[in-house]
Amino acid sequence: MDVQLQELIDKIKRDGVASAESDAQDIISEAQKKAASIIKDAEEKAEGIIKNARAETQRMEKASEDAIAQAGRNLLISFRDGINRELSALVSSESAKAFDKDMLKKLVPETVKAWASQPSVNDLTVLLPAKDLKTLETAFKASLKAQISKGMEIKADDSLSSGFRIGAKDGSAFYDFSAEEVAGLFSSYLNPRTTELMKRAAAGLAPEESSAAEPEKKAPARKPAAKKTATAKSGAAKGTK
């Protein structure tokens, strides 16, 4: 009886120890799995945070670069526009000064005679600023006596501040030598040139590297004569009102 009891007690001990060891192993295994899962999640979150941080850093860097580039472009454009305004103002001022009484006294008769010499030209009208007409009318009547006798008229045009216009009475064509028009022609040439020079400066190109033939692309001196076309009707009509 005592032997059987002892064996039962030993069996219970063995089974209890084995069960405890199995439970402990399960607990350890589950803990290891949970620990591995936690570490994996932490690593994934850390990797995501790093990735997002890098993307945000790159975005901010690009945004900063774009902002600096745009600010540079705006500065260049503002500087270019400022130069163009200064040039236009200077050209306008100098053009108005160039059309003084002495210049008009010489240039108007020469222009009228050159145009009136063409067989197809009849009945011309010369338009002058009122202030210049008052002081030069007598001189023009003397120097253009032959043309006036053929029907040419000399009139004042309140829209003119400086310079002159010559046109056919029927409005088919006219030459516009007003200070505003001449200044506009010069400015239309200077402004693109200023823009081109600014581009070269921004690109770091030396002026010597520009093509020697480039200045020949435009011929602004011919532009006043180009206005003797049918498309100038509206301008002529306006000048003769």
Describe it for me?
By secondary structure, the protein is α+β, with helices and mostly antiparallel strands. Helix content is 70%, strand content 8%. Strand 3 and strand 4 form a beta hairpin.
Short note summarizing the structure:
With 241 residues, this protein is an alpha+beta fold.
Structural key phrases:
241 residues, alpha+beta, 4-stranded mixed beta sheet, 7 helices, rod-shaped
Map the helices and strands.
Elements: H1 2-98, H2 101-116, E1 124-128, H3 130-143, H4 145-149, E2 153-156, E3 163-168, E4 174-178, H5 179-203, H6 223-226, H7 233-239
Parallel strand pairs: 1-2
Antiparallel strand pairs: 1-3, 3-4
Helix pairs in contact: 1-5, 2-3
Overall geometry: rod-shaped
pLDDT average, as an integer?
75
Low-confidence stretches: 209-241
For the largest beta-sheet, the strand count, sense and barrel status come to: 4 strands, mixed
What strand line-up does the widest sheet have? 2-1-3-4
| First and last CA, distance | 145 Å
Please compute the radius of gyration using only Cα atoms: 46 Å
- Seen as an oligomer or otherwise, the chain set is single chain
Which range best describes the helical content: under 10%, 10-25%, 25-40%, 40-55%, 55-70% or over 70%?
Answer: 55-70%
Q: How many beta-strand runs?
A: 4
Element-level helix/strand string? HHEHHEEEHHH
- What is the structural class? alpha+beta
* Number of continuous helical runs: 7
Strand content: 5-15%
